[in-house]
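4.2 Preliminary Data

To establish feasibility before requesting continued support, the project team ran the inverse folding procedure on a target of 713 residues. The structure was first converted into the token representation described in Section 3, and no sequence information of any kind was made available to the design step. The complete token record follows.
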């Protein structure tokens, strides 16, 4: 559990404040890769040793699982007895948390399920102790009763009966008490009972081994009739088993009288027991509402505190028994998500971590990063942390520099300029994408998959996969890339494509960043947010490859302008066109986009020819039947006699105004379904200042009859 100086100072400060008389906060500022999860784990390990009730919270299920997993690993490595984890508990929604592996040992849902059988009054721990005690005490009598109850012909020897019967009772008792030792805290079992259980299980294991592996025949009866008052007989095995039986009966009697555990079949009762008896509880801030007021919690740790709204942090802070709270986060990374502009202007999304920091509260900076190659960390360090972060020894070693692809373009850090990229909106118009960048990423992943460099040889030998993260600021780009690579086989790669928010708190061997924006005016939208950029640039361990239009980014006046300039100064700037294959990939993608655009243009032109054109001068131009006296063009075989032209109202035409669609509704005889045919918006939909609606005669007649009936009624 070695800590660096900054980590050690932060832990010691928390412990000292924990024992102060006043309730206080401690802020731990943890930039990317500085080991804040390790710091939390060591702090929690000390809290557990000191028997302080501790609640650990985080914004998301993924974040709290990472902290719990790291702490559990620390306990397994440094605890003398890894069998007992009943004082550690993970709470979360079963469907959304997706707990697997070792975390099931501390997950509330699985714990309640396992203890349900152990606490059952008729089949639980007390039943198993009583059954074994009764068998060791009255085994021969039970055998005689078995002979009376059994069918004719089924007459096993006492030795055969005893061996089978003991094995069944012992296996059930061992399973039950192994679950109890794992899922019930020592404080609930008591130390003396805990030791008695371990001793009993050890003796029963030896007793079972002897009775199963040796043949005693009729002498097994002497084992069940043996008492300490009798002199030792010639068969030493019988004497050994007899003495062991008496010791087991003594331990069983002690546990039956001293062990005080619940006897209930109520899952809510078992759930409350688990929560109340745990000393370290992990959950999201929203799930902390399940921690009731009668649960004594003295110490609160909130991970990713800068990503929580202040009101969310107040949920666990409501516990009145709290003596100290530790907020761990980084205000230079993504804050809480707030979509309302009114709420944003009112600072609703501000975290308690940020508020206390702005008020001058002391922050303990973790100042040594263990994740990124120095070529990757230098820009975020100078841009976001004023150069206060040092590179640890492990990232400066030669082994940390890994070349996954040949060529300087694919070194530890590079900006790959794609001038021919095209940004466009998706079909819904809500997000942006760049198919040219997506095609280049597909080519890079294809090269990585082939794995020709020596680093992949090592991965094959160790069966360790190279993790690759593809970060996109826009969800439409995530979908575009996933569509291109969904059929690719990635061995020996493990590829994850997600938005910036999806990568917060994560890290990968290689990060490929698609910036998407490519325009002539330098617009980059929310990409200009420095906190978002910080997350993008600090996820990689060995390689960070940034794809973007240098002209667009350099003229944006944002952090990306500095990044492009820095890449050029450090000679980490490369034109994608300098790579022969990538240049051909870009050219092919542009041709495909041009072809799609031409097809769209033809489709739009064809749609315009399908429009119903109506000419009318005023409502007075309608004849007695309601049809226009002027000519009406028609489409798809809809006769003009079946179309009624209604002038909704008159007003002066405004050429700058967007006009709603005209809808043509065909009138099908003997068909009750009326299908609407949308028409593409156009200024021509307003004729002489009139908004026009074209509907079939039958529908107008039905509408008129309905209006008359409604008026008369």
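Position-by-position output of the design step:
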């Amino acid at each position: 559990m070695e800590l660096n100086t900054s980590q050690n100072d932060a832990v010691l400060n928390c412990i000292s404040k924990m024992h102060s008389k006043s309730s206080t906060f401690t802020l731990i500022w943890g930039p990317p890769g500085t080991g804040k999860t390790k710091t939390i784990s060591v702090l929690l390990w000390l809290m557990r040793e000191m028997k302080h009730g501790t609640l650990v919270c985080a914004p998301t299920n993924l974040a709290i699982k990472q902290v719990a997993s790291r702490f559990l690993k620390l306990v397994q490595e440094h605890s003398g007895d890894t069998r007992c984890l009943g004082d550690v508990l993970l709470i979360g929604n079963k469907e959304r948390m997706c707990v697997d592996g070792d975390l099931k040992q501390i997950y509330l849902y699985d714990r309640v399920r396992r203890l349900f059988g152990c606490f059952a009054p008729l089949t639980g721990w007390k039943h198993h102790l009583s059954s074994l005690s009764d068998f060791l005490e009255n085994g021969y009598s039970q055998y005689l009763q078995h002979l009376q109850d059994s069918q004719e012909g089924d007459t096993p020897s006492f030795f055969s009966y005893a061996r089978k019967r003991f094995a069944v009772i012992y296996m059930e008792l061992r399973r039950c008490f192994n679950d109890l030792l794992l899922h019930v805290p020592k404080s609930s079992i008591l130390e003396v009972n805990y030791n008695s259980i371990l001793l009993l299980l050890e003796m029963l294991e030896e007793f079972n081994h002897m009775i199963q592996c040796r043949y005693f025949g009729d002498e097994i009866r002497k084992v069940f009739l043996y008492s300490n008052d009798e002199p030792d007989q010639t068969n030493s095995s019988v004497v050994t088993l007899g003495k062991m039986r008496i010791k087991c009966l003594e331990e069983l009697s002690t546990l039956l009288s001293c062990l005080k555990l619940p006897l209930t079949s109520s899952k809510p009762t078992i759930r409350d027991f688990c929560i109340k008896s745990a000393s370290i509880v992990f959950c999201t801030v929203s799930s902390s509402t399940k921690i009731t007021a009668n649960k004594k919690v003295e110490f609160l740790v909130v991970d990713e505190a800068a990503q929580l709204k202040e009101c969310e942090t107040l949920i666990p802070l409501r516990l009145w028994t709290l003596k100290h709270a530790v907020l761990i986060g980084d205000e230079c990374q993504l804050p809480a998500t707030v979509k309302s502009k009114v709420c944003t202007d009112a600072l609703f999304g501000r975290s308690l971590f940020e508020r206390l920091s702005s008020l001058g509260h002391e922050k303990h900076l973790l100042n040594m990063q263990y994740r990124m190659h120095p070529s990757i960390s230098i820009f975020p360090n100078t841009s976001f942390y004023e150069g206060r972060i040092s590179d640890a020894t492990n990232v400066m070693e030669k082994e940390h520099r890994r070349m996954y692809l040949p060529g300087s373009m694919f070194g530890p850090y590079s900006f790959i300029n794609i001038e021919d990229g095209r940004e466009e909106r998706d079909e819904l118009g809500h997000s942006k994408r760049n198919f040219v960048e997506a095609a280049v990423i597909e080519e890079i992943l294809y090269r990585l998959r082939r794995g020709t460099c020596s680093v992949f040889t090592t991965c094959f030998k160790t069966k360790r996969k190279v993790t690759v993260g593809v970060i996109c600021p826009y969800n439409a780009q995530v979908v575009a890339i996933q569509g291109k690579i969904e059929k690719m086989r990635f061995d020996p790669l493990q590829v994850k494509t997600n938005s910036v928010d999806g990568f917060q708190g994560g890290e990968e061997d290689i990060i490929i960043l698609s910036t998407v924006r490519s325009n002539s005016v330098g617009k980059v939208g929310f990409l200009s947010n420095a906190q978002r950029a910080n997350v993008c640039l600090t996820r990689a361990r060995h390689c960070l490859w940034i794809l973007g239009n240098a002209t667009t980014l350099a003229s944006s006046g944002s952090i990306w302008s500095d990044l492009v300039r820095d890449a050029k100064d450090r000679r980490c700037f490369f034109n994608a066109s300098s790579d022969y294959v990538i240049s051909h990939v870009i050219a092919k993608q542009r041709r495909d986009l041009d072809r799609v655009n031409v097809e769209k243009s033809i489709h739009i032109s064809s749609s315009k020819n399908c429009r119903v054109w109506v000419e009318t001068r005023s409502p007075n131009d309608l004849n007695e039947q309601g049809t226009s006296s002027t000519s009406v063009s028609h489409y798809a075989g809809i006769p003009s006699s079946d179309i009624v032209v209604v002038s909704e109202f008159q007003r002066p035409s405004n050429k700058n105004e967007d006009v709603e669609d005209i809808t043509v509704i065909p009138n099908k005889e003997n068909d009750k379904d009326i299908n609407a045919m949308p028409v593409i918006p156009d200024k021509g939909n307003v004729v002489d200042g009139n908004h026009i609606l074209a509907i079939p005669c039958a529908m107008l007649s039905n509408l008129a009859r309905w209006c008359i009936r409604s008026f008369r009624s």
